[in-house]
Amino acid sequence: MDWGQVFPTFTLAGGQTTVNDVSSLSMIQPAPNLGGVDMTAHLNGKTVFQRTFELGEVAPLWNNVRCESCHLGGSRAGLPRVNATTGELAPQLLFRVSLPGTGPHGEPKPVPGFGDQIQPLMVVEGVDAQDDVRGASAEGNVLVRYTEQPSLPFKDGSTVSLRRPTYTFVKTTQNLPTGTMISPRTGSQVTGLGLLEAVREETILEFARVNTNNGVSGRPNRVWDVEQGRTRIGRFGWKANQPTLRQQNAGAANGDMGLTSPVFPVEPGETSASAQLNLSEQQIRDLTVFTQTMGVPAFRNNSSPQAQLGAVMFAKAECGSCHVPRMKTGTLPGRPEVSNQVIAPFTDLLLHDMGPALADNRPDFLASGREWRTAPLWGLGLQQTVNGHTNLLHDGRARNVIEAIMWHGGEGENSRKIVTEMSKQERDALVTFLSSI
Fold first, then answer.
1. Which of 55-69, 227-241, 399-413 comes out lowest in average pLDDT?
2. Which DSSP helix (H) or strand (E) runs through 360?
3. pTM exceeds 0.85, yes or no
4. How far apart are CA 322 and CA 344, in angstroms?
5. Which of 92, 209, 281, 338 maximizes the CB count within 10 A of its CB?
6. What does the alpha-carbon distance between residue 194 and residue 335 come to, in Å, rounded to a whole number?
7. Rounded alpha-carbon distances, angstroms, from residue 206 to 47, 222, 264, 350
8. d(CA 180, CA 157)
């Protein structure tokens, strides 16, 4: 089958926001169609994104004091820490927590004394090197261990080893209540988010309708917009629990670093607004412009015979049912750069049941404990260059593309089974195709 029958023969993954860069800076470039006043705001927002905040400014926090530490180079979390005892790598993670039930707007119910997120510094087995760099009291630490297990065999009899994580909370300031639900999360890619914000709600709902017709039951999350005071479709975060980039940015700054802003003026764990905000309205605006107007790397080497075969395998495995290759954005007010662009993000922005193996068993608005938003795939082939690793999935357990596929269950089970029936040549071609994205 010809490549063009499987996927459009263009390299402009982000439409006119596409950048031709394959370096470690490929995912933190401004969109080439950005200019003038907007470029100034973009660069000011980049300064906020890369700024290291002082310990006196942040509340008890996760394990970083700047945005880019969790989204290295605009991409995913950086190189995992090395376990000094075993040499094993542990991903950079945060831990969402909640109690059974919901808040007044359908949000997860916070845990008394902790809120909705543990504010630890990561402990890697046998290592607790962060205690002396805090300067502020953490809520606890988390010990990460992995157990290796073989995947189901491929048609040729081979397997891959899958690592299943377990987490142990230590040195917590108080005991977590019985029934506390915990969800590990690693930093996800920032590049391309402005284009996803510009996708029309009608387009997302149409993806959900098509999913229902073909047996895959993707659905949008419905979440609370804190400034508009209404429920909207969620787009951002591992469970699509944020409706806008402005709220996503302000929420991450507040939850991960304890920074207050006009959107979230209360520090985590407190009940009243801070006397002085850490981020001004202008800084939040600039940070939002920055994340809305980042360029998307062009596809690379996608016309090679190997990549074309891989595209056929991608279609054969029905991966595009959730990782939708192509769509058009609508109009995002004030952001002509990302409006009305033909893009190739490989996501439907919907929630999908991924089965028990990937379940965190923690609901988030309408998202169940087994559902995750389809992760965009654009920029996947540059992750090693930008981040220094190829770890994937919400908790970084998969060390490469094939491991990530083999963890798929639930609505992804059929695709996983089809991949197990592929020959090694076909699987290698699939990886080549995904590496060209």
1. 55-69
2. none
3. yes
4. 13
5. 338
6. 9
7. 38, 15, 32, 11
8. 41
